[in-house]
Amino acid sequence: MPGNDAAKAEFAPVNPSPSAGDGGRRNLERIYDLSVQARVQLGGTNMTIRELLSLSPGTVVELDRMAGESIDLLVNDILIGKGEVVVINDNFGLRITEIASAEDRLKKL
Predict the structure, then answer these.
(1) Can you list the pairs that 31-34 forms with residues at least 24 positions away whose Cβ atoms lie under 8 Å?
(2) Which of 12, 33, 62, 82 is an S-S bond match for 98, by CB 3.0 to 4.6 Å?
(3) DSSP letters of 33-96?
(4) What pLDDT is recorded for position 40?
């Protein structure tokens, strides 16, 4: 096409992975202080607006999980692991029982 001065994009090589020596470790350390949102999800349900507006104290909402089933650990809305609920000094916590593989986590990005 006349007047088209487009050129092929060129990119610098990707830095080595963290296991590739000190350079990779320095690159990884750059993100250590970034904040991410971690969320533990017990379960969920779908309901109509009518059902939502009819909720009151004491109402039981049935979730899409069976009792004793693993709880999801999400980071920035990406499933990274599963675990079980624990209570420590009157606070709820999550004992991680499974971490998703790096390959599975990357597929969901």
Answers:
(1) none
(2) 82
(3) T----EEEE-------HHHHHT--TT-----SS-TTPPEEEEETTEEEEEEEEEEETTEEEEEE
(4) 93
* 80 CB neighbour count, 10 Å cutoff: 20
- Go through 11-35 and write b for each residue having 16 or more CB atoms within 10 A of its CB, e for each that does not: eeeeeeeeeeeeeeeeeeeeeeeee
Closest CA to 96 of 84, 88, 87: 84
Write the CB contacts of 95 (distance below 8 Å, at least 6 apart in sequence).
Answer: 83, 84, 85, 86
pLDDT at 67: 85
Q: Which two tokens stand for residue 49?
A: 């607006």
Q: Alpha carbon 87 to chain centroid distance?
A: 22
Per DSSP, the three-state class of 16 is: coil
Tokens of residue 26, six digits:
């320095």
User: What pLDDT, on a 0 to 100 scale, did the predictor assign at position 22?
Assistant: 63
pLDDT digits (tens, 9 = 90+) for 38-81: 999 989 999 999 999 999 999 999 999 888 889 999 998 899 99
Closest by CA to 81, choosing from 63, 62, 94, is: 94
